[in-house]
Amino acid sequence: MGEGDTIWAPSILPLGTLGTFSHHLQTHFGRKMESKVSEGGLNVTLTIRLLMHGKEVGSIIGKKGETVKKMREESGARINISEGNCPERIVTITGPTDAIFKAFAMIAYKFEEDIINSMSNSPATSKPPVTLRLVVPASQCGSLIGKGGSKIKEIRESTGAQVQVAGDMLPNSTERAVTISGTPDAIIQCVKQICVVMLESPPKGATIPYRPKPASTPVIFAGGQAYTIQGQYAIPHPDLIGCIIGRQGTKINEIRQMSGAQIKIANATEGSSERQITITGTPANISLAQYLINARLTSEVTGMGAL
Q1: Which of 106, 148, 155, 262 is the most exposed place for a label (fewest CB within 10 A)?
Q2: Region 110-119: what's the mean pLDDT?
Q3: CA 292, 296, 298, 302 torsion-angle sign
């Protein structure tokens, strides 16, 4: 290869950088190697995707978007949060490696703050670790795990963070979830080392990114009872599907319009009175539809008349 040649992706890393970088990787695994990464020895642009629950996303966004705005300004990284009415959201962080590490540090410390705040109201004495879920193309997971798990073991030992790579790919994608947990500092060190692996082993072939699905909350009718599923609990209601649907579907249409949610009522399966109602929409739409259905059932049962 000539002097001006580049390796695997010209936009990512010139050959010279990779040569010296690999050498450092083998000789100084740990702190020295990381400083090499963050001090501009390898300041290339990277994209890292995180999978978060709605509550975590809310914490990152902050009141009127103030927290995420501060994170963007202070880290210099681009932080995008996927749209949608899903219980899970994708947070994409793009930028030079040092900006990504700063953004990660801010997210990890914010989550720790949330844990401390939630503990002040609970009897728990031991502090749970901060947990982040990365979404990584499956084709890079092999390099992250290493031969016989050697690389992942090395990362765990040198950072003190717990790292788990999911065995299965995320639905309808070629990506896997990589869960990291530990103290914010351990998480930051761990993310640095994962970035190194991802730069050294780019994804092979096309990656089908994971896209979270919208939430749907079923209401199940069984044995003369209606149950709404709230979290892990089934809340029973008398089976009065007729009063929810109304004459020629008037009531159900009313609930659809008022809540803005989509509501599907399945036909009863043979030999049983079970009928499933699936509600889809934004979390706010779903809870409004649930409320209206429950209110409708309650009014019918208590003889309060029409809603």
Answers
A1: 148
A2: 89
A3: positive
